[in-house]
Amino acid sequence: MTMHKLQPITQIGKQLGLSADDIIQYGMYKGKIPLDIVYQRPRRAKLVLMTSINPTPAGEGKTTVSVGLSQALSKIGVRATAVLREPSMGPTFGMKGGATGGGASRVEPSTEINLHFTGDFHAITAAHNLLAAIVDNELYHGRRLNMNPKHVLWKRVLDVNDRALRRVIIGLGGSGQGVMRESGFDITAASEVMAVLTLAHDLPDLKRKLGRMVVAATGSEMVTVSDIGAEEALTAILREAMLPNLVQTREHTPVIMHGGPFANIAHGCNSIVATEAGLRMSDVVITEAGFGADLGAEKFLDIKSPEAQLSPDLAVVVVTLKALRYHGGQSLKEIDRPDSMALRAGMANLNKHLENLQQFGLPVVVAINKFPADTKEETDWLLRELTKQGTPAALADVFVQGGQGGQMLGHLVMQQLDETQSHYAPLYQAQESLEDKIHKIASRIYGADGVDYSPQALTTLRRLHSWGEDAMQICMAKTQYSLSDNPKLLGRPEGFRLSIRDIEIARGAGYIVPLAGDMIRMPGLPKEPAAFRVQVADDGSISGID
Questions:
Q1: Which region holds residue 390: left if phi is over 0, alpha if psi is between -120 and 50, else beta?
Q2: Which has the closest alpha carbon to 30: 14, 10, 15, 1?
Q3: What does the alpha-carbon distance between residue 143 and residue 229 come to, in Å, rounded to a whole number?
């Protein structure tokens, strides 16, 4: 990206009613918005939730469509802001590469954003690992809390895909090296510190939520960050990371980008403060929830929306012909080839997601993310099928054409915002039991016949009941490729049961994390990681990340 094509971040801020003094600048093209500025005005914007069907391994382009839609709305005279998550360097150097959109619908400066950005991920990693060091120091000195090494729950994190660190032995080396015990690493996007930062309303709320985090547990007792007395130090590290980041699209529309939890192993939504900024400074906010609607959208609607008292006005479901053919039975090697039978069969997956969103009371629009190889015959067929079933839909050619290629979708979104009424309500209520909440998600969202728990998961549930923590929400860790917990069950699987092999406690974030199937919280690198595509020229310019 040639930097002179971008506008200074102060110019982007003017579109949000911000002066140069309202922005903490990180160079010419990046900035942070102070929290007192965020909350100066009342909410006024309509809120559009961008989600998708279950993706192929390459993804369905939700970020690209989110950016393209914000650009399209700007072209038709709507003050729109995309409010998105920050990329993790795990997938940036792993399977998928960069995560700032693509083509003519990209967030800039994309390479900087995909790497260190404003340091938020580093701050979260540092805060999480400081707490881990304090916990192990407490074990070593045994000063106050008498923690049992076997009952420590707090792992370490790293923003790199590294399967070798999933289970490790620490404290090796004998006397003076700490207490030897088994532990492990999660990726930073799965850190509870990340979840707490994205679900906190302000610094006092951040500190309170950090203090509630559980680091160790015995049958009837928990040890929290407040018990250790570490919440002040963690908050100090996270003070600047708590501020939402302001950047721009290639067409100079504002993007507020903050927080980066994955949706398959965490709650998959950008921060509450970023969403608040968009809602108070724009007329329409487009916010993206990670992966398919069974993951990111469900968590946005059952976790983030109740916490932030949000009421989304519309959901946009991104679909590609490739994904429909994939869910209709074509292999990954074949999905670029037109196949009408596979396309028809794949509609079952899309329709299940549409039904799920309607369970939450949301009006729904389908965005067909156009790829260059898509045939007009197939896209026309899909538009006709959606029209027949009464689902508003539009083609979005935003990768190639940017905002110009998203104007049909933009007009449709504005029409639906004007003509439809959201009746949003979460799937479950706080007073329901944890088991009932899990069953509702499994049966009504995934289509499972029931839920099976391992002995270890049942032990954790009993512990949570004894602590009186039944009001917590559910943040399912599940494969993104299937509605089930088996990535090979594509389409709309039936006759399966959801298997919960373990449950992790994220009390500070206000939820538990049932681990469904073989889901793990530290990804590994593929055989040919995206890291091999990265090149650095003699002048320092970087290619191969976008």
A1: left
A2: 10
A3: 13
Encode pLDDT of 27-57 as tens digits.
999 999 999 999 999 999 999 999 999 999 8
CA dihedral of 494, 499, 504, 506, whole degrees rounded to 10 = 20
Mean pLDDT for the chain overall: 94
> Model confidence over 144-196: pLDDT tens digits?
787 889 999 999 999 999 999 999 999 998 888 889 999 999 999 999 999 99
Which of helix, strand or coil describes residue 396?
strand
CATH of region 120-236 = 3.30.1510.10
Q: How far is it, in rounded angstroms, from Cα 420 to Cα 23? A: 36
CATH homologous superfamily for the domain 19-118+241-417: P-loop containing nucleotide triphosphate hydrolases (3.40.50.300)
pLDDT at 43: 97
Q: In this structure, what DSSP letter does residue 166 have?
A: S
CA atoms within a 13 Å half-sphere pointing along the CA-CB vector of 263: 31
CB distance 399 to 64 below 8 Å: yes
What pLDDT, on the 0 to 100 scale, is given for residue 143? 65
Supply the DSSP symbol for 459: H
Nearest to 409 by CA among 48, 16, 15, 45: 48
* The residue to which tokens 């369905």 are assigned: 60
For the segment 409-430, the average pLDDT, to the nearest whole number, is 97
Average pLDDT over residues 302-327: 97
Give CA–CA dist 474/429, Å, rounded: 11
Which sign does the torsion angle of CA 5, 9, 11, 16 carry?
Answer: positive
- Tell me the two tokens of residue 125: 């990693």
Cis peptide before 42 (omega within 30 of 0): no
Contact predicate 419/361, CB 8 Å: no
**Is the Cβ–Cβ distance between 396 and 369 less than 8 Å?**
yes
Q: Where are the domains of the chain?
A: 19-118+241-417, 120-236, 434-516
Q: Cα separations (Å) of 317 from 296, 347, 387?
A: 12, 13, 15
> Pick from 293, 279, 260: which is nearest to 427 by CA?
293
